[in-house]
Amino acid sequence: MKAQTAAHIEEARRLFPHTKKIAYFNSASYCPFCTPVREAIVSNVDQRVAAEQDDSHDAFDVADELRGIYAKMIGATKRSVGIGLNTSHGLNIAAFGLPLKKDDEILVSDIEFPAVIYCFKAAAEARDLKMKFIKSHDHCFDIGEFEKAITKRTRVLALSYVQYFNGFKNDLKTIADICHKHNIYLVVDGIQGMGVEPINVRKFGIDVFASGCQKWMLSPQGCGFFYLSDEIREKIKPPFMSWLGVDWKMQFSDLFHYDRDYFDSAQKYEFGYYAVLNLMGMKAAAQIIQDLGIGNIRQHNHGLIDRLASYIRSNSFYQITSSMESLYRSSITTFTCKDVKGLHRELLKDKIILVNREGSIRVSVHLFNDESDIDKLIGVLEKFAKDK
Fold first, then answer.
1. Bridge partner list, 333
2. 239, pLDDT greater than 90
């Protein structure tokens, strides 16, 4: 990593007050607020408390700016990106809106995050579709098993970019190529990679990409965005619609018109007025990601994980349970031992914030972490192993 970039990341760490007291490794759940996000939210609250002007149009301007920012981050056009409430917002657009017929098949992994499963399960029940599980191997999505599961009725593959419990990053380009060969729509839950793992949705050939922003994107809970490819956007027919899916040309003083056209962009599938406080926080958070660059954040995060992995490999009491291969690794790493629950309790006592997932300790490293956080974690691991 270039010295200048490293210095910028060190400066960014100072934007997060929590770093003075705790080592936070739980970005895969949600991120702590940084000072700019807090200030943006408080500023908007103060503006609404004063009530000196109609600021409702500000939200539309910020939302439009965010569509452009997120589009650039994922290699898309602004018109293909919409602002959502969470990851499930985008997943539901796909699950209920894709042009599917009775008995068409949806494939999902047997280790998938529940958001994917339940969105498509509900759609399958409502639309007389079939949902089939793809067998995983070693707690990882298996491309060979995916290919074996494909039939002439298979129309959708829905999966996560990065698996939530062990950080396994799926090879989306290879998977997308298989989907295209068999005319299968590819729907991706991107939340565990967005902001820390570079992605180009058009280059990869993804049809629908959905991501909340409360995790690696440093934003408040209850916000996110979705991407619909140009081809898919024209075919989607979701079961919900909002009056703000119509292009009013911002002329809200003359609303007695019921023949207006819907937006010819992903904005058509946004749902009503915005959670404005979240929008302001999203904008401040996105600026930090933009300034540092996702590639630089990834390099920083992986370097810290390498430091931790080096220690774990040196201590036979612990075993790494996540992939460290370049193609499949992410900013999440996991490891286990004979007393995971006891270790987790000890880590929390020492103000090291992380979680126990599926029998492993999950460490989610982000831009506000540094070597001192890793060394603090290693110190507790060393003591715990010796005591056992």
1. 363
2. no
Query: Would you say 223 and 85 are in contact if contact means Cβ atoms under 8 Å apart?
Result: yes
d(CA 282, CA 164): 22
Domain positions in the chain are: 3-33+293-387, 40-291
Mean pLDDT of 201-218: 97
Task: Walk across the sheet containing 154-160 and list its strands.
Answer: 81-84, 224-228, 208-212, 185-189, 154-160, 105-109, 130-134
Model-level pTM greater than 0.90?
Answer: yes
Q: Specify whether the CB–CB gap between 21 and 360 falls below 8 A.
A: no
Residues constituting the chain: 388
DSSP state of 34: P
Question: How many DSSP H helices and E strands does the chain contain?
Answer: 13, 13
**Based on the number of CB atoms within 10 Å of its own CB, is 258 exposed (0-12), middle (13-18) or buried (19 or more)?**
exposed
Class of domain 40-291: alpha beta
For strand 130-134 and strand 105-109, is the pairing parallel, antiparallel, or unpaired?
parallel
User: Which of 299, 375, 388 has the alpha carbon at shortest distance from 340?
Assistant: 388
Instruction: Give the C-alpha separation, 31 to 15, whole Å.
Output: 13
Tell me how crowded residue 267 is: count the other CB atoms within 10 A of its CB. 21
Domain covering 3-33+293-387 assigned CATH 3.90.1150.10 in the classification: yes
DSSP label of 33:
P
Q: Which residue has the tokens 């990065």?
A: 162
Q: In the predicted model, what is the mean pLDDT of residues 48-58?
A: 84
What tens digit of pLDDT does each residue of 323-342 get? 999 999 999 999 999 999 99
Query: In which residue are the tokens 């992939």 written?
Result: 323
Find the radius of gyration of the CA atoms of the chain: 22
DSSP states of 212-273 = ESSSTT-PPSS-EEEEE-HHHHTT---S---GGGB--TT-TT----S-PPBPSSGGGG--SS
